[in-house]
Amino acid sequence: MVELRSTTVLPAVREDIELHTEDGLTLVGELALPMSGRVEATLVTLHPLPTHGGFMDSHILRKAAWRLPYLADVAVLRFNMRGTHSPRGTSEGAFDRGVREGLDARAAVALAVERGLPRRWLLGWSFGTEVALRHGSALDVEGAILLSPPMQSAIAADLAAWRASGKPVTALIPELDDYLRPEAALAAFAALPSADVVAVQGAKHLWVGERYVRIVLDEIVARIAPKRSPLPTHVPASVVRHGHAAEEATP
After folding, report:
1. 53/65 Cα distance (integer angstroms)
2. Residue 196 in contact with residue 167, Cβ under 8 Å?
3. Which residue among 70, 90, 151, 217 has its CA within the 20 to 30 Å range from the CA of 230?
4. Could you give the number of structural domains in the chain?
């Protein structure tokens, strides 16, 4: 048995995908499925701000796709929102400050529905949380998990829509976040009293470090596939391969 590292890639069925939005754009992404053929839950991920380096390979989202299909039978759908580039390619369109990115989220959920992927959840990080809060309550998902929500463009009406939907929302708030720290987060989510606001001691906005990656992935799995929580920290050496060691501080 070997311990999971930041570059550990575990077995999954990985497929390059294209998404087609209602306004005629083609977006590029990847779908990672459990090799077991069993899907306990599905994550539809929404990446950080592309104008500040966010994309489908932002490290938490990449590590979710590298680990969760094997460790938790969780399917992970990652994609570049409009105008965003990664090694996978460039999605058509232009950055729209979270407005028409709602169509991107809708296209991603639609593909998950078309593929018959069960128990769909939105996983947003930073800018991706704004897209989730502004547009996600009406989508065919069970709920949303928010990492480092800045709460800069989501408004009371968006929280009210989530409250009316009855769908659960969990917000993981870094103790040392650059934009929204735990005390302020409690006030920001007051309009959604059912939201589970979780403070993570010592963490920062980018969740740098293996310790915080494990905390985030454990918190996610505890909510979407609780029977698979907590996640193991060691796996058989025979299943491990290693990906490129991207800079941990890259969002």
Report:
1. 19
2. no
3. 151
4. 1
Q: If you ran DSSP here, which 8-state letter would residue 122 be given?
A: E
∠7-11-14 over CA atoms, to 5°? 95
| 106, 72 Cβ separation under 8 angstroms | no
Give a yes or no: residue 153 inside a domain. Answer: yes
Q: Is the pLDDT of residue 250 over 70?
A: no
Q: What ranges make up the beta strands (E) of the chain?
A: 2-3, 8-9, 13-20, 26-33, 41-46, 74-79, 85-86, 89-90, 120-125, 143-147, 169-174, 196-200, 234-235, 241-242
Neighbour order of strands in the sheet with 26-33: 13-20, 26-33, 74-79, 41-46, 120-125, 143-147, 169-174, 196-200
Q: The domain that contains 73 carries what CATH number?
A: 3.40.50.1820
Instruction: Show the domain range for 124.
Output: 2-242
Specify which residues 90 forms β-bridges with: 85
pLDDT for 184? 98
Kindly report, residue by residue over 80-95, the tens digit of the pLDDT. 999 999 999 999 999 9
